[in-house]
């Protein structure tokens, strides 16, 4: 699988497949360097999971300003501790890395920018993303929360970088990873895509563009809470979320599996036509 999808996949000489992805989000790390760095790590894991590979190792490239500035050094310390905490929880070793300091201009230091690369392995085969067809269902795994802080929506619509960045729930993250891997292993998924920058609206649109097909989506099903604003539903950048394209012949089996696992999920709608339509409170 070439670069451009959720992760790249390489075939190894021993017949196994290696999945690789690098992720970063300076805005989240600027708002909260610890939680932002964990989010970068988890996003890279999600992308590897979407190929059907199990994360087995990580590398980092930590880019910061002048470490002699106490505030800059604090952001570095927080980022490193966050990455270490998540790596220990997932039992994923850090097998290499690089630190780059003194990244500044006359306007000041760069935003804290840890880049996290994750490697995953799969023994037999991997999930090749198949474009959605008419009648395919779209299922989301994970919780959409009130987490617009540091979002693309805030920056590009409201010209504002602020708020509280999304936070990774370690337990939910692991459960959702294993759930998606199980569905892929059982060949119940046509395509998997993570929700990240831009939120669910962007991720859903990317799938439709990939398949050159429209979709009919009930965005109120995105949240496990009532009375979320349309902006939060569409553009919240909550972590640990996966969009799964499911063939109509498999949708009942997938729902039964997710109910049995007590996973947080929703069937958002179907792919059809040539328009991307989001329904909110019975209106498009």
TrEMBL record:
GO biological process, one term: 'de novo' IMP biosynthetic process
Statement: the UniProt record of this protein carries the keyword Cytoplasm: yes
One of the record's GO molecular function terms: phosphoribosylformylglycinamidine synthase activity
Keywords: Cytoplasm
Listed transmembrane segments: none
Location of the PurM-like N-terminal domain: 6-121
Residues in PurM-like C-terminal domain copies: 134-275
UniProt protein name: PurM-like C-terminal domain-containing protein
């Amino acid at each position: 699988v070439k670069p451009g999808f959720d992760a790249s996949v390489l075939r190894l000489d021993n017949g196994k497949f290696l999945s690789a992805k690098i992720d970063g989000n300076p805005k989240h790390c600027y708002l909260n360097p610890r939680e932002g760095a964990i989010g970068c790590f988890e996003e890279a894991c999600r992308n590897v999971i979407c190929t059907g590979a199990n994360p087995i190792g990580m590398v980092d490239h930590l880019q910061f300003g002048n470490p002699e500035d106490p505030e800059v050094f604090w952001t570095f310390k927080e980022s490193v501790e966050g990455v270490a905490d998540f790596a220990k929880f997932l039992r994923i070793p850090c097998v290499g890395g690089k630190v780059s300091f003194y990244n500044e201009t006359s306007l000041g230091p760069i935003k804290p920018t840890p880049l996290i690369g994750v490697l995953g392995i799969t023994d037999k085969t991997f999930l090749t993303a198949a474009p959605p067809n008419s009648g395919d269902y779209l299922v989301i795994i994970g919780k959409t929360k009130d987490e617009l802080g540091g979002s693309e929506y805030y920056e590009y619509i409201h010209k504002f970088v602020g708020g509280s960045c999304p936070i990774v729930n370690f337990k939910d993250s692991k459960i959702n990873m294993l759930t998606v891997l199980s569905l892929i292993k059982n060949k119940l998924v046509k395509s998997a895509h993570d929700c990240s920058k831009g939120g669910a609206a962007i991720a859903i649109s990317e799938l439709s563009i990939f398949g050159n097909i429209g979709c009919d989506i009930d965005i109120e099903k995105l949240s496990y809470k009532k009375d979320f604003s349309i902006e939060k539903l569409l553009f919240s950048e909550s972590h640990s979320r996966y969009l799964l394209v499911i063939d109509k012949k498999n949708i009942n089996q997938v729902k039964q599996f997710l109910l049995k696992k007590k996973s947080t999920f929703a069937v958002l709608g179907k792919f059809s036509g040539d328009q991307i339509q989001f329904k909110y409170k019975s209106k498009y």
